[in-house]
Amino acid sequence: MPMLYRRTVGDVMTEEVVTLRPTTPLQEVAALLDANDIVAAPVVDEDGALVGVVSASDVLRHETGMPDPQGQDGTDERSWGKARARTAGALMSSPVFTARADWTMPRAARELRRRHVKQLPVVDDDGLLTGIVTRSDLLDAFIRSDVEIRGEVEQDVLERILGLDESTVAVEVRDGVVTLRGHVPKPWLVPVVVGLCQGVDGVAAVDAHLAAGAD
């Protein structure tokens, strides 16, 4: 049976990423973050490999002389090094929590929550930066219109995967809740239809009113 396509990090990530070099002066770092309205920027070396990340809060704490409230700077030596920082390389946090383009969006969302971060740089097998995925990217992907959801259920789930005639099952979607009414040829298809619909991005719940022929 054909599988339902699940969108991945690669589908929703931003590929044009504002990046810094280790040698980028802090004044320029602050200006880039502000001009692009972003909360953090990856630091890459001359080959494009990800080596660290600098956040707006890092810059702010540096400028105000405030210590890291969560103690994430590590040793006192590391904290003093950041306090004296004049470049992105000296202020950046490393190693960096990253994502892969082939990750499912739920996996990326769990990683964002577990790491308590708002975005994850996306790297390839060689550690080269290929994009960045943010919480808002994932939210935008999950919060889909009812029309989009209905179209995917009808065209992908019912017609393409299950091969059901469009007159067999009527689909209604309201606020992400899918209501199915109609009949399917076999009883075992009922949980299959429900399960596939639950796997569609943006579906909050499935309310199935389906009759089935005898096995």
UniProtKB/TrEMBL annotation:
Domain CBS: 13-70, 92-149
Region spans: Disordered: 61-82
PANTHER family to which the protein is assigned, alphabetical: CBS DOMAIN-CONTAINING PROTEIN CBSX3, MITOCHONDRIAL, OS02G0818000 PROTEIN
Species in which this protein is naturally found: Streptomyces cathayae
Key words, A-Z: CBS domain
InterPro entries cross-referenced by the UniProt entry: BON_dom (IPR007055), CBS_dom (IPR000644), CBS_dom_sf (IPR046342), Diverse_CBS-Domain (IPR051257), UCP036990_CBS_BON (IPR017080)
Annotated protein name in UniProt: CBS domain-containing protein
Lineage, broadest ranks: Bacteria, Bacillati, Actinomycetota, Actinomycetes, Kitasatosporales
SUPFAM superfamilies (alphabetical): CBS-domain pair
Alphabetical list of CDD domains matching this protein: CBS_pair_BON_assoc
Domain BON, residue spans: 145-214
